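Practice problem: predict the structure.
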Amino acid sequence: MRLLSDIWDAVKRGNPRALFASFIYFDHSFSIWLLFGALGPFIAEAFGLSGAQKGFMVAIPVIAAAIFRLNFGHMFQFMDGRIIAVMGILLSLVPHLYMLFKGYRVSYEDLLWMGVFLGVAGASFAIALPMAGSNYPREVQGLVLGLAAAGNIGAVLDGVLFPPIARAIGWEHTFVLSGVLLLIALAFVILWGSDKTEKNEGSKVYPVLAFFATLAFMVLLALGFQKGWFGITGNAGKLLIPVLGSLFAIALMPLSFKKVFLERDTWVMMLAYSITFGGFVGMSSYVAMLLRDVYGISKVEAGMLMSLFAFTGAMIRPLGGHIADRISGATALLFFLGGMAGVNFLFALFTPPLLLGILFFLALYSFYGLGNGAIFQLVPHRWPYQTGLMTGIIGAAGGIGGFYLPTVNGIVFEATGAYNLAFALFGSLAVLCLVIVKLLHAKWMEWAYVRYDYEKDQLVGIDPRSGRVIMEIGT
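Answer:
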């Protein structure tokens, strides 16, 4: 009850309507973003896809969203977040309209470029979070951003609603019907959305042009590597997409924004988020097919379990932010990364029976959600005046992690007939990040445990051991 009281007190300290609009925008966009994951077993059966093809199909929306978050973060520094949100929702509807136009008949290549447009929905993260946070004071940012980001629960809608509907009316009709969620999100953004972020001076046209150039480039990459247009075929070409897409989007960013890539903390948080959020979204997009491969359960049962896991990870995310508000995200992250590593290594050592496997996945998703909340509690403290930009950059890293997870899963399963090696790789990556964060922990604590001084209008760093002020960050 105390936790619920704390949450309600935090919500009342700002604009609850704006927070709810951001939540709905992210939640429904998240559902559309991971649509291929929920419908994947039906699509794979219809097209007779191999393991690598399945992994690539569900990974395209994930990596597209990662790259577009860089663009959205860039635009957010200059434009009202509501305008970007409306544009993103309308572009996310393009695949649904195309499916209608084609009479519900599409090819595998169509699914790839459509997946790029679904990725625009996934980029909503870079707008929904800073919009929500702009309506609240800094000392409750961890909890408030966790509530907005609990829109991850949109993956639950995917697993609960769409597989049963697809079984009844077909996956193609289900795909089109899902567009209703975007229309609902559009209404809430227009009616209740609010962005109080202070914007940079400069052209609003260039960031928009850079985004559309990146959109076209990502479509080219998705189709080009599938068809062998660049002279590179197979898995090697597909694994290059995150690198090429990121470099293209970063090249179009202003020089002043690129400077954040010279900071060590930028890369460490990108690594951490590629593991936590990358794990959440990547596993959510693939886990239904993994469960089918390993346990042979039905497509609907796999979708229901996917929903259970996603619900767990999404609902526990605000708790991760709340814990980080209390002990700092720097400290909380150590425990959460350790938990992720442990569960991954258990999966690597043996394939558990179904019931135990479900428990393992629930634990893994819990650590994903807690870790996501802890990392984004840190962002407004480390970069108080570049929160929108850094949300986009770090969120992009999460999407890149989400691309590699299903892609690697598909490649490993096709090569070995099992997923143990993939889990070993993911566990090792979590250990590497844990070691790095531990080495930086003392330095991070100089800024990670802060409060906002309203009289001085500045952030004040506090030593959590002594309670004394150890630094001041002036405006």
